[in-house]
């Protein structure tokens, strides 16, 4: 691999972006992050140099892109269409000016075939249209729901102590659950693969399961009974509101409201064979992922009601 490549990870403080940054660093590559806020280090990658700025300010984005050849982009949990469009336009302009040779855009959620009334989908559709405009050498990854959301202070204790797997999706909704580590693996492959410009991939793990089947997989891996409990979208949103505030909580909850209507039944389903073939990667089965997690972390922690996955760090794709 050429030594003159420089990688930018937009959204490096989020769990998804941090996973990508760590994977790039593990390859010994020249990587920098872009994030808003304080100079707090990226989780698991304190050595990552990070440019602080605002995606709404073109000059900030230009500074982040100086000398960059490859970029991984996941936008923050903002659901104002005009603002998200500004973010995407600034990223596109700065990337073109820098002469970026590959940009991988993680939409943070799959996109329904039809237009919906939910900003969680439509802002991401808008951003994709800007970034995958046929001018930038872009690869688009549309992830489903993350397994890592289940290893959290909201789900972990309930799983270990009570055998309850609670999530705001109907029990019968089929999902190709994906891990952050596999997202990072897929992103690196999309950054480096030959001839992938213009590709749009529905990303997902090798196991597509209903809620009940997911609980069975957890039960087999954990050696205990596990029951799936579908959360109501209103309850999920209420839990998010205390962390994100009203607009962002409503935005994230929209992902699950649409799923609850039964619209686009295969929305969270991906053809993992196609993904593995196109990207040349192996994705992790659910049982392997569950077995690899340190679930004892939650053994002494009581559940607080199976609230939302941690949304503060752009962790929703669901």
From TrEMBL:
- Segments forming domain NmrA-like: 5-261
Q: Which UniProt keywords apply?
A: NADP
Cross-referenced InterPro entries: NAD(P)-bd_dom_sf, NmrA-like, NmrA-like_oxidored
To which protein family does this belong? Answer: Belongs to the NmrA-type oxidoreductase family.
- Record protein name field: NmrA family transcriptional regulator
Task: Name its species.
Answer: Parafrankia colletiae
